[in-house]
Amino acid sequence: MAFNRNIIRDYVKKYSKASSRSITRMLIRDHPLIFNNFEAVRVEVRAIKKELNIESKSETIPEGFFNDFKTIEIKGNFKVLLLNDIHIPYHDKKSLELAVNKFDKIDIVILNGDIIDCYSLSKFERDPRRRFFKDELETAKKFLSYLRNKFKKSRIIYKFGNHEERFQRFIYYTAPELVGVNEIYLENLLELNNFGIEMYNNKEPIKLGHLYVLHGHEYKGYNNLVSPARGIFLKTKSNTVIGHYHISSTFQDTSISGKFTTCWSVGCLCDLHPEYMPLNRWNLGFAYVETFNEEFNLSNYKIINNKVFST
After folding, report:
1. pLDDT tens track for 167-198
2. Cα separation of 244 and 266, whole Å?
3. Measuring CA to CA, which of 152, 221, 293, 311 is 20 to 30 A from 125?
4. Which spans in 56-185 are helix H?
5. What is this structure's pTM?
6. Structural element, H or E, at residue 5
7. Distance between CA atoms of 299 and 82, rounded to whole angstroms?
8. Which residues contact 281 (CB under 8 A, 6 or more apart)?
9. What radius of gyration do the chain's Cα atoms show?
10. How far apart are CA 108 and CA 131, in angstroms?
11. First-to-last CA distance in the chain?
12. Residue 302 belongs to what H/E stretch?
C-alpha cells in the first residue's frame, strides 16, 4: 500500500495529543481513496509519531475532528456586485460586460460560484472535442485580470461553487497521490493571490449584514422546481441570495411575530442553451447589494436582449 506520508505527518502534528487510533480514523474518513487499511495506516502513524518524538497516549475518549467551518461576515456600508454562474469558457460575453459595467463605484465584488466550468473534469458524459482544462484556466485568468483592472481598489471575493469542486473531486478519484500538493490547488492554478482575490472553498456562507450569500449547492434535497428562492427559504429561514439554478426568483414571508424575510435566486451569465440541456427555464442576470451596517437593499437584475432590467 502506497502512503502519502506528508498527509499523515500533517495530521500527527495537528493532532499531537490524539491517540494513534484516533488519527488513523481521521485519515481514513477524510481520505478514503488513499487510506483504507486501518492497521497498516496505524503502523505508519506510530512510526511518524516516533520520528517526531510524540508519545502515543491511550485515552478513554479520543479527540474529535471538526471541519474548519465559519461564516464570512462583512459589516459596514458597502456597494456589492454579485456575479455567479459564468461558467467560463461558456460565458455570455455581452451580458458579462453589461453586469460589470452597470455601476461606476463598487466596493466589493463577490464571485458567487461556478465562475469556471471545469467541463473536461466532469463526472458526466463529456464531448472530447470540447476545450481542454488548460484552455479554461487561461480564459478564466484573463477574466480575473480584466476584473481586477476594472475594480482596482475593490475587494474581490471568490466563493467556490459545485463546478469548482469538480477539480478537487477529479484529483481525489484520479490522482490521490497529489492530494496535499498546494501547487495544484485550483486557487493557485488560477493565480488568485496574484490578482489580490480572496478565496473560500468550504461552502462557507458570506453574510452581508442580515443577508446570507450562498452559491446554492450547499443545501441538499430541497424542491426548486417552481422557485429556487422559496426552496432556499425553507432551508435557511433567513434573508438569503443564491445562484446555481440560473433562474431569477424572489420569495417573501412574514412570520407570526412579524419577522419579514426575503430570499432571492439570481440568473446566470453563461450560454442559455448548452448542449447538455438546450431547453430550460434559465435567464441571464446578476445582483447588486447596498449594505447599511446590518441593513441591506438588494436589486435582482435580468438581462433580456442585451438590456438590463430590474426584477
Report:
1. 988 988 888 888 888 888 999 999 999 999 99
2. 8
3. 221
4. 93-100, 133-150, 162-174
5. 0.80
6. helix 5-14
7. 10
8. 247
9. 22
10. 31
11. 57
12. strand 295-304
